[in-house]
Design brief:
By secondary structure, the protein is of the alpha/beta class. The protein contains 11 helices and 12 strands.
Length: about 300
């Protein structure tokens, strides 16, 4: 084993997207401006390490506004977006809030509102109970927007025309394409987004995984169990040819015994996972075996989102 070397194929882009950077910046700048504590409704992004770090700086995470003990303190809404009832409740309670919703999620909200305004029944492609889906459905009156998750549901959904569709921003590009194709066959006049809803970062990270997964004996995605985009990357790696693909959350045993048996492994991270976790993963492997790293870059990201003026 002394002379053996593992090659790590490192996907790029990986890790934080512009929406995640913006959301974390908002929490840090609000803490800087107003002092601690600052409340955050739901995890600002789906990553335990980010949440823990912000907690040590003075952020208090709550599930609902009713849990807030001091309504004089600022409240931040997470990057996933919120139903319209949430800012309405904040105004009613006289709570000062800052909305950290990702601008690409806000784009989907505005599309859904526009479709509703023009009389369309809206089909939302997404995962039930995900905060982003709850937020998008909460922009439209109940009954005017219907959720589907699969091709089977697309084949069976009953809606009155005219019909439009929007999607969650963190879905599998290929799976979503299959669902949209079914909808277009069933409803030839269905109206879709001018520019697709799945965000640039989700698409780029999935593309980079597709390029390298088939070369790997194991593939690792660093992210959290509740991170939709991270779980989709695992699925993409499996479909692209690496059946032994898994999510690394750092909350269970590190699979080093399996890793050292490999000659080549793949590595990426979800859009809400800090780069430090990727480097920690590599450092841990280096404790046990020699490592060489080859980075595969499939896109250059230069997207920046402005912070809200407030």
């Amino acid at each position: 084993m002394e002379n053996k070397e593992i090659k790590i194929l490192l996907a790029a882009p990986r890790g934080f997207c512009a929406g995640v950077v913006r959301a974390i910046d908002i929490v840090e700048k609000v803490l800087e401006k107003y002092g601690a504590p600052v409340y955050v409704r739901h995890e600002i992004v789906h990553n335990k390490h980010v949440v823990d770090d912000l907690t040590t700086k003075g952020a208090i995470f709550v599930d609902e506004l009713s849990e807030i003990k001091d309504s004089s303190r600022p409240v931040i809404f997470s990057a996933h977006g919120v139903p319209k009832t949430v800012p309405a409740e904040a105004k009613k309670k006289n709570i000062f809030y800052i909305d950290a919703t990702c601008p690409l999620v806000t784009k989907v909200h505005r599309e859904a509102e526009r479709h509703h305004k023009y009389g369309y029944t809206i089909i939302l492609i997404g995962h039930k109970d995900h905060p982003e889906v709850i937020g998008t459905m909460g922009q439209i009156p109940i009954g005017k927007i219907k959720l589907i998750e699969t091709v089977s549901e697309a084949n069976n959904i009953k809606v009155s025309e005219p019909v439009a569709y929007v999607t969650q921003t963190t879905l599998s590009v290929d799976d979503t394409k299959d669902i949209i194709n079914v909808l277009k066959k069933r409803f030839p006049n269905i109206k879709g987004p001018v520019k697709e809803d799945i965000c640039y970062a989700t698409t780029n990270r999935q593309d980079s995984v597709k390029k390298i997964a088939s070369q790997c004996e194991m593939f690792f995605v660093i992210g959290s169990n509740n991170s939709s985009n991270s779980k989709r990357l695992v699925e993409v790696a499996k479909k692209a040819g690496c059946k032994n693909s898994q999510l690394i959350t750092f909350e269970k045993d590190f699979p080093i015994n399996d890793i050292v048996k490999c000659n080549k492994i793949g590595l990426t991270s979800g859009a809400s996972a800090p780069e430090k976790l990727v480097q920690d993963f590599i450092i841990e492997i280096k404790k046990h075996i020699k490592v060489s790293i080859q980075e595969y870059t499939t896109a250059i990201e230069d997207v920046n989102f402005k912070l809200p003026k407030i």
